[in-house]
Amino acid sequence: MNVLDFKACKNRAEKIVMLTCYDYTSARIVQDSEVDVILVGDSAAMVMHGHGTTIPADVDMICRHIESVGRGTSDKFIIGDLPFLSFRQSLADTLRAVDRVMKAGAHAVKLEGIEGNEDTIAHLVKSGVPVMGHLGLTPQSVNQLGGYKVQGRDDNAVEILKQQALSCEQAGCFALVLECVPGPLAAVITDLLQIPTIGIGAGQHTDGQVLVMQDLLGLSADFKPKFVRRYLNGRQLWLDAFNSYANDVKGGRFPAESESYK
Ligand code: KIV
């Protein structure tokens, strides 16, 4: 997968499979899977560091995770998230942040929102940096949005989202994440654009899908959003394994002779 394949996939009506990943061990497994694209998302702040939002993520955090993922993969396309406000200061500051993310091993960056970002995106693209857009529910703006809510619910919001999606394409984005928007609206936007849309909570008719790895693996006991499908009851499997280990140690069954040095 390279940046040109995104549009090619859309043209061939081949779905793009994206998954978040933040560490070396998981990256080695993703490397052997049929997942096309890895997103080192700022969701790392929540699922890897225990913060309540993505806002505490910073460039250091994202770069450390990109480096770990890069060491575990050989040919997966890696997208690095630009954290909260890291692309909203001066152009020079943005370029320094992007420079670090790309040198950490990303092949592209993702940034949330379009208003006020048009020139930044165009400049990055002209500078050789592929940019993925992100519209709908943009978690870095959770305080502005008044919570994690489905976006594009009324006629005005629908028109705004369609215009914003076109602006992302015009600015030069190679693909666009649509998060928590009604399926029919995501379908209209997908048809409107030449670039592929990658949905999360955006229904079936986007050009691809993305999930957070910990959600897919069912590792969390917390609230499960409607759009998450758990492919594993990972939390229970991990718990069972930890408890089997604890019971074996306490019962003198671990280690066995065969697991001991003579
Ligand atoms: O940070 C992230 O994981 C994301 C996805 C939810 C798209 O931005």
Average pLDDT over all residues:
98
The assigned structural class equals: alpha/beta
**Main sheet properties:** 8 strands, parallel, barrel
Spatial strand sequence of the major β-sheet:
1-2-3-4-5-6-7-8
Distance between the termini: 49 Å
Q: Which molecules other than protein and nucleic acid are bound?
A: 3-methyl-2-oxobutanoic acid
Shape: globular
- What percent of residues adopt helix (DSSP H or I)? 40-55%
H-E string: HEHEHHEHEHEHHEHEEHH
Rounded to the nearest angstrom, the radius of gyration is 20 Å
Say how many strands there are.
8
> Uncertain segments of ≥5 residues (pLDDT<50)?
none
Per DSSP, the total helix count is 11
Oligomeric state of shown chains: single chain
Strand content: 5-15%
